[in-house]
Amino acid sequence: MDLKDCEIIKVMSEELNLTKTAEKLYTSQPSLTYRLNKLEEELDVVLFKRLSTGIVLTKEGEYLAEYSKKFLLEYEIMKKNIKNIKDSEERKINLGISTTMAKYKLAFILQSLKEVYPQIKINIISGNSYHELPKLLKEEKIDIGILRGDVPWNEEKYIVSKEPYGIISQKLLKIEELEKIPYIQYETNTVVKSRIFLDEWSKIYLGKPFQGEIIKVNSTEASLEMIKSGIGWTVLPKIHMQNFKELNFFPMVKLNGEPFERETYLLVKREKLKDENIKKIVENILENKERYFK
C-alpha cells in the first residue's frame, strides 16, 4: 500500500461511487477496480460492497479510509515543514549598509557572519544613509539596515558605533591658524553635521562661528587628497582616515570634554525579527559591534 492507494481510498470513501472516484482521480474505472482488487489481496480483506446505487464500505474499509485521511494529512504537514526548513536555510537576507561602512567595514563583518552562519545567504545593498536605505527599509526591500547618522524610525533601532569627529590636516594646526587656511568642505548630507559641529566647536574655542575660506568638493577622497597635498583642512569622522593614516586627526571636544560624534545605527522592523535567520544576524552584529565597527 502506498500514497496513491491512500488517495484512492480517501476519495472512494467520500464519493461512495467507483465511477465518480475514477473521474475525480483522472483514471479509468477498470484501472481503479484493478488497483482496489490488488489492495484487497495485499491486505486479505474486503474493503467495500457493491450496491445498485454505488458502494458501501466494510468495517475494514472504513478503518482504512480513516487511516488514509490521517496519513495524507500528516504527509502534507511533513512536506510543508520540510519546505519551511529548506526555505529557512536557503533564504537570502537583504542587508542594507551605508556606502562608507560598506567601503571600510563590510568585508570583515560579512566574513565573520559567514563563518558563524554559513547556511545563511546574505545579499548586500549599499546606499545613502539619508535617502536610499530608509526608503528600502520601509518598502521591505532590505531586511536590516546599517545607517550612519540618526534618521526617523519607529521600529527597532540600536547604536552600533560612535565615530569621533575631528579636524584633519597635513600637519598639526594651531586653533588660531584655521581661519587663515582653506576649509575643504565635502558637499553631501554629512556637510550639515560637519558644519554644525565646526561652528559649535569654533564658538567654543574661537568665540564665533567659522568664517574662513571654504573650498567645496564632491567626495571625501578629493578633500583628503587636497589636504595630503597641503591645500587645506577639513572636518570629518575619523573612519575616513583609514587610507590616509599619514594625515593628522585632532579630535573635536565640547567644553565638558565630550567628543563630537557621529552614530551608526542598526535598524530593523519588529516583524522581521520573527524570522530566525534575521534575528540571528541582528543578535550577532549587536553582540560583536565593538569588534565589527572598531
Unreliable parts: none
Mean pLDDT: 90
Principal-axes shape call: rod-shaped
**Strand content of the residues, in percent?**
15-25%
Distance between the termini: 63 Å
SS class: alpha/beta
CATH class of the largest domain: Alpha Beta
Number of helices: 11
| Tally of structural domains | 3
Radius of gyration: 34 Å
CATH superfamily label of the largest domain: Periplasmic binding protein-like II
Strand segment count: 11
Helical residues, percent: 40-55%
How is the main sheet built?
7 strands, mixed
What does this structure look like?
The radius of gyration is 34 Å and the shape is rod-shaped. Strands 3, 4, 5, 6, 9, 10 and 11 form a seven-stranded mixed sheet that branches. Helix 2 crosses helix 3 (29-43). It has helices at 3-15, 18-24, 29-43, 59-90, 99-104, 106-116, 132-138, 190-206, 220-228, 276-287, 289-292; strands at 48-51, 54-57, 92-98, 121-127, 144-148, 156-169, 183-186, 214-217, 233-237, 248-251, 261-268. The protein has three domains: 3-89, Arc Repressor Mutant, subunit A, CATH 1.10.10; 91-162 and 263-292, 3-Layer(aba) Sandwich (D-Maltodextrin-Binding Protein, domain 2); 163-261, Periplasmic binding protein-like II (D-Maltodextrin-Binding Protein, domain 2, 3-Layer(aba) Sandwich). The longest helix is centred in the N-terminal third of the chain and has 32 residues, at 59-90. With 294 residues, it is of the alpha/beta class. It is 45% helix and 22% strand.
